[in-house]
Amino acid sequence: MNIRKSILAGIVSLMAFAGEAQNYDHHFLLAGASFAVPENGWFELVCEAFNAEPLNKAVSGDAIKHTASDMYYDRFYTTEELDRVDAFIIMHVHNQDVASTNGIKENYEDYSYDEIQQYNTAYDYVIKRYKADCYNLKFNPESRYYQTENGKPATIILCTHWHDSRISYNQAIRTLAERWQLPLIKLDDNIGFTRKVLDEDGRQPSLKYAADTEKIYDITFGWHPLRGKEQYIQQKIAQIAMEELSNLFTPVPASATIEENSRAIAPGEPAYFTCRFTGIAPWNLTYTVNGEEVQLNGITENPTIIEVTPATDKTTVVPVAVSNSTTENGTVSGEAEIFTCQQAIAPTFDTYVHQANKTTVYTDADHLEIKGNTDTHTRESFLSFPTAGISPDAERIVLRAYYYDCVYPSWPRKETHPVEIAGNTQTYTTMTWDTKPTDFTPIGKSLVLGNDLNSYVDWDVTDWVKSQVAAGESTLTFRLSMGETDATGLLYLYSMESDDTRKPQLLVSSQASSGIETTESQLHIYTRPAEKSIVVKGLDGNCQATCYTLCGQPVFSRQIEEDGSLELPDMTPGVYLLNLHNETLHYTCKIIL
User: Fold this and answer.
1) How far is CA 459 from CA 213, 380, 388, 441, 504, in A?
2) Strands annotated E in 279-329
3) Is the distance from CB of 26 to CB of 56 less than 8 angstroms?
4) What is the dihedral of CA 168, 169, 171, 175, to 10 degrees?
5) Is 377 helix (H, G, I), strand (E, B) or coil?
6) In angstroms, how far apart are the furthest CA atoms of the chain?
7) Residues 6+ apart with CB under 8 A from 487
8) Best CA proximity match to 428, nearest among 350, 362, 368
9) Average pLDDT in the 552-567 region?
């Protein structure tokens, strides 16, 4: 472990010049264990809010004694790093009495190595040693604090545990902060829940935000908070830390960046956009929806999803102003263009595959599943659509599916899932984990947030689809798979076989189209094999009916009257595509003969 730390310290030292070149306003140093490593994201979010260089020295599995040991052997920071650090944040939070005075020395130099292996003496040594190192910079000719009266100001900030289960530690760290008159980031007081109030299901509320559990006083609590900057809990931890640090340092000004949450919608549906902020919550946001101004105050969630009333064809949301407690008039950027689509193309094939059930076929399942590679139970979903009727001049093409459930290995929690989409132009009728194709072209990724549950999630596939249409391809097959993440949720999406009307769709918006797509729930299409006919009910006027093979080869094309039927030519039994088209309808579905 010592070799690894030395290597890490060396890497950070080599990056020191590059760090200065980025023109940071501040430089924050962090010591800690698994709650503080960069994979969490909260410390890095804090540094972004203050334009601070993140000197993250946390190592998973460490305790305060490891930091004390590294300082004892002069390997925790270099002199150059110490010279530029503005704040030293300590997040070693084991449930121990770190404020005990047993074995405490007056002078840090009086400690032996063995004497700083306890939690209380290690904390004492680290605080005294850092203060002394900062003071002694006054004697270093290479320091910016050389020949100053008191050397460098030593700013040390302590942290409670991320929630209030670790009673021994949380009480002790308050005592220690008061003894030394140090700022304290009170995560447990401000996290938004407490062990004293259980959830409706009788569980500790911390479980919703944790990746695993620990038992304290024979009670099960959430242990490690879900990792990643997009996770709600990491953002909450960051916001609490920002509030404390804003008493010492000036944060970056507030800013707001807007982007689509609903990239495309069907007529009559609400539309949503996402806004991401910098600075410290809460924020006040002013924006326009197709020119009409709207203002929201007291926004605390970042990013936040906001609903707007859509226009007939395209809804444009533009940010106007943003402010918070430190910024009267911040910067705004981005915009959201949400298209109301004229086509809603149904899939001709969909399924999912399951890593643990390698030969099982799920083609007839009423749902699709997506799960990350956290164990041997990875799932991927596949959907195929015809290209018939898609204009190469389409403005936006979006694949969307309704996200109706998320199942976790043991307890419910709020996670962000990066779901990647890739495509090819092959046709499939069945698939298993062992036979799933791999020749897919990456297209993009959508972050499926915890707040997206019970709504459509979508992926913009415009450029890739238009290139395939222009190349004359007849079939589009998409793969949905989980990107790299610590998130453990199993996502459920309705499939084309579901009884629910909110089935997967390829939404297409084009200026050339003046009609509105009739959704599947309005049409009733069924075959009469004995009479060699297809019955179509729910049409608005006459339309052109064209039948294709799954490979896109036309079989026949005929006019059909409102609530009429089609006589079929001699056709080989199998699966076909039926496209219905008139001025107000463009619809494709699968038929089986």
Assistant:
1) 34, 15, 20, 14, 12
2) 283-289, 292-299, 304-308, 314-323
3) no
4) 130
5) coil
6) 101
7) 226, 228, 372, 415, 416, 417, 418
8) 350
9) 78
* Dihedral of alpha carbons 67, 68, 71, 75, sign: negative
- At 57-97, the pLDDT tens digits run 999 999 999 999 999 999 999 999 999 999 999 999 999 99
Kind of pairing between the strands at 156-159 and 184-185: parallel
> What six digits make up the tokens of 593?
């003969």
- Its sign, for the CA torsion 8, 11, 17, 22, is negative
Please report which helix (H) or strand (E) contains residue 590, including its range: strand 585-592
Structure tokens at 267: 């007529």
Compute and round to an integer the Cα radius of gyration of the chain: 30
Structure tokens at 215: 């038992």
Rounded Cα distance between 494 and 230, Å, is 25
Are the beta carbons of 416 and 449 closer than 8 angstroms?
yes
Q: What is the pLDDT of residue 481?
A: 97
The pTM of the full predicted model, rounded to 2 decimals, is: 0.65
Distances (CA, A) of 454 to 73, 94, 269, 406: 55, 38, 14, 10
Distance CA 325, CA 332 (A): 16
User: Which is nearest to 39 in space by CA: 225, 226, 200, 227?
Assistant: 227
> E strands along 311-408, which residues?
314-323, 331-334, 336-340, 343-345, 349-354, 367-371, 379-386, 396-407
Q: How far apart are CA 22 and CA 233, in angstroms?
A: 29
